[in-house]
Design a protein that fits this description.
6-stranded parallel beta sheet, Rossmann fold
């Protein structure tokens, strides 16, 4: 009897109930010339900027400076929304998944950009929580904030993204993760039972089945 109760509890905690999606590169492609953006930000800061992700984490607590940098980036992001490309029939995939899972979104895009893209995709109402860089621009902290706001446990949550930063951040928090290996992703990851690698969002239902059966 005790063993059966333990099995039930273990199964409950391991069951995926909550999906957290990245936006750019995962659901859509936002054609921003990031080299040009980093050059403009570098000129503004009078220092070389190799990674905006790293820069955000460095300047986040300086609210005034962060806003000025964010505004520079947002200018280019908003322009690029005119040419946004939806990947892998993402709206249809999300609507199908919404029937069984709670869905949230984390993005390093700005709130204005995210809202514009989600309105274009007609999927805004599908997401329980949406976290943008104005909330916090560090992916692991974005995931933690989503969990806090939704009351889901890390072990109930699967993070889906296209960059190793998404995957590593998910694992740091204690979530499982799926890497969508797009053509611009060249890094490989070590084999890990908490990570799956796919090439399209359309493979996600099969991955979820695998996690449920593991």
């Amino acid at each position: 009897m005790v063993k059966d109760m333990y099995s039930l509890r273990r199964g409950f905690y391991l069951k995926i109930r909550h999906l957290i999606f990245d936006l750019d590169g995962t659901l859509i492609h936002l054609p921003v010339n990031w080299t040009h953006v980093k050059h403009e930000v570098s000129s503004f800061l009078a220092r070389n900027v190799d990674s905006l992700i790293q820069l955000y984490s460095e300047i986040w607590r300086n609210k005034e400076l962060f806003k000025k940098v964010s505004d520079i980036v947002e200018k280019h992001e908003l322009e690029a929304t005119r040419y946004v490309k939806i990947l892998d029939d993402a709206p249809e995939v999300l609507r199908s998944l919404k029937e069984k899972y709670s869905i949230s979104l984390v993005t390093l895009q700005s709130k204005n950009v995210a809202e514009r893209i989600l309105a274009y995709m007609d999927v805004r109402e599908l997401f329980k929580v949406i976290i943008t860089r104005e909330n916090v621009p560090i992916r692991s902290e974005q995931i933690r904030l989503v969990l806090k706001l939704t009351n889901f446990k890390p072990e109930e949550t699967l993070v889906i993204g296209d960059l190793l930063n998404d995957i590593n951040s998910a694992l740091i928090v204690g979530c499982k993760a799926v890497l969508i290996k797009r053509e611009w992703v060249h890094s490989s990851i070590k084999e890990n039972p908490n990570i799956k690698v796919i090439k399209s969002l359309k493979e996600l239902p099969y991955v979820l089945r695998d996690f449920s059966n593991s």
